[in-house]
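Same chain as my last thread, 93 residues:
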Amino acid sequence: MVIQHKQVDNKGMFYVGKDGAIEAELVYTMSSPGKMVIEHTEVNEELKGLNVGKELVQAAVTYARTNNIKIVPLCPYAKSLFSRIAEWRDVLL
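reply #2:
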């Protein structure tokens, strides 16, 4: 599975797509330079149970580390992952 990334202005997403359709996504806003707010994570039914949501959040964490960005996880799913995975907390604001 390939996680893709796109950003237009201050809105962006990490996503998994197939045949032009988005099957899983993590949507974020760059509320200020160096600050990513994760707003929403969603995974289609056929991908549930495959850790796709976790992989999307991991992609955001990797991107944040690479680009010196701090994350605010407003999305309940992302927030729950950050509370359980201590290794990701270095990117939390």
